[in-house]
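Lab notebook: predicted structure, single chain.

Context: the supervisor wants predicted structures on file for every construct in the current expression panel, including those that have not yet been purified. This is the next one on the list. No modifications to the sequence; it matches the entry in the shared construct table.
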Amino acid sequence: MKKLLPLLLVLLTTGAFAQSPNAFNYQAVVRDAGGNVLANQAVGLRIAILQGSQNGSIIYQESFAPTTNGFGLTNVAVGTGTVLNGTFSSINWGSGPYFIQV
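Prediction complete. Output recorded below exactly as produced.
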């Protein structure tokens, strides 16, 4: 019986499949053109997912309007913003490489 338990566990887990994320976290410190941190300010971010290379075609694009904290830090979940182009859930992550443009 003890020898059958590992075999049974292997058979049960072979049916498990990897799933794509619904979103992923992105964090940045926002600075102005002079390199000064923009603390406690509303900012605009536009994030795009490009396929193939850093100059590849945009397959998904969205925008955010977060507010930075006291250190100029902002956090967003890519895949949950205002969609400008494409569908996040339809990205075939296995056919990369993919690049992010902010």
